[in-house]
Specification:
Layout (H helix, E strand, L loop, with lengths): L4 E9 L6 H12 L9 H27 L6 H15 L5 E8 L4 H11 L5 E6 L6 H17 L6 E3 L7 H11 L9 E7 L3 H6 L24 H16 L6 E6 L12 H10 L4 E5 L8 H17 L4 E4 L7 H12 L5 E2 H4 L5
Helix pairs in contact: 1-2, 6-8, 6-11, 9-10
């Protein structure tokens, strides 16, 4: 990278504070994204402002209060630590972070980079999502491009593709898991963020394979944009390195909407099922998140544990996300140092169907 290069790290985002006002504002920003709730604008507007925000804000505010750390969002704090460590590693180019929703904003990150570098000549984007999904990875990449256009930054945008099977990412996950004595557990549960079947099927450009054929994930064509394939590929690679039998682990998906078809099994159902089938001691991993956040710290580490134990489970241990671990920092440094790891904006985005 040249002396005029910028690196922007993009993560999901968080409310500014664990207050009802901040949570409502964040929810509106997040859920009004057409790639998060995939329906018409009017239906989305009514659903978000008439149902979700009024009825879920209070409970979510309580959940955020449980995980708030030293006056900061754990996700934002983790991302700031990642930025600081990358700078300490001495990588070429300026480094800034931007949140897809909330602060610090992507717009501010771009402005800071342009000022810091004395006019940017190229930008390298790392969306901190290992797996492709329109509701996470794609919307983050597109938001950066939109803000670049608004700021009239007519420079090349290079994007790190999803790193779900990169050896360095897999090794970092394995190292995190091996910090625990696996002999103490009956079962490993890999929890991933949920996604609607509708969004999964949109990744199938043929329109005739995804979730239609039993072996749909064997289709090479869908793999660059298929969240489901990429999730199972991550689990396959991790369990192979750990040498774990198939009956000793399972996969589940969080945050499913009850009235729509989402990926299954749900984490809630899987936790109950494990507790009731003599899998009394479980180790829980959340590979779809790089930074710990509400979905990992509250939904899994707190509520998930309570659910499992209340249904007969005896031991529930959560494995922290990669956050700013040395192994993940090593991965980021290697990727940043290798220009060939990055693709053009057009290559990493799924065309609209």
């Amino acid at each position: 990278m040249s002396n005029k290069s910028g690196i922007i790290l993009v993560n999901l985002g968080s409310p500014e504070s664990p207050t009802l006002k901040s949570v409502r504002k964040y929810l509106r920003d997040f859920l009004m994204d057409k790639r998060v709730i995939d329906t018409s604008f009017l239906k989305r507007f009514f659903l978000v402002n008439g149902i979700i925000v009024p009825f879920r804000s209070k409970s979510l505010t309580k959940s955020y209060r449980k995980i708030w750390e030293n006056g900061q969002s754990p996700l934002v704090l983790s991302t700031l630590k990642i930025k600081k460590k990358i700078e300490q590693l001495g990588v070429d180019g300026g480094v800034e972070i931007g949140m897809r929703y909330g602060e610090p904003s992507i717009k501010a990150a771009l402005q800071n980079l342009n000022k810091k570098m004395g006019s940017l000549e190229e930008l390298y984007l790392i969306a901190l999502y290992p797996h492709f999904a329109q509701a996470s990875y794609q919307t983050a990449v597109e938001k950066v491009k939109q803000e670049m256009d608004k700021l009239k930054l007519k420079i090349p945008l290079k994007v790190l593709p999803p790193f779900y099977q990169d050896p360095l990412y897999i090794s970092a996950l394995v190292e995190k898991i091996l910090a625990f004595d696996l002999a103490q557990f009956d079962h490993l549960l890999f929890c991933f963020h949920g996604l609607s079947q509708k969004q999964i099927q949109k990744s199938d450009q043929s329109g005739s394979e995804c979730l239609v054929k039993d072996n749909c994930c064997d289709s090479v064509q869908a793999r660059p944009f298929c969240y489901r394939y990429q999730v199972f590929q991550t689990v396959k690679l991790v369990t192979e390195q750990l040498d774990i039998r198939k009956d000793k682990y399972s996969v589940s998906f969080q945050s499913g909407a009850k009235k729509k078809k989402w990926l299954t099994p749900s984490t809630t159902e899987e936790l109950i099922q494990l507790a009731q089938t003599k899998k009394k001691k479980i180790l829980v991993i959340s590979p779809s998140f790089v930074s710990d956040c509400l979905e990992t710290l509250e939904e899994l580490k707190i509520s998930g544990k309570e659910l499992f134990l209340s249904h007969g489970g005896e031991k529930f241990q959560y494995v922290d996300c990669l956050n700013d671990s040395d192994s993940f920092m090593n991965a980021l440094q290697c990727w940043i140092s290798n220009k060939n790891k990055f693709d053009s904006y057009e290559k990493v985005i799924l065309p609209d169907r």
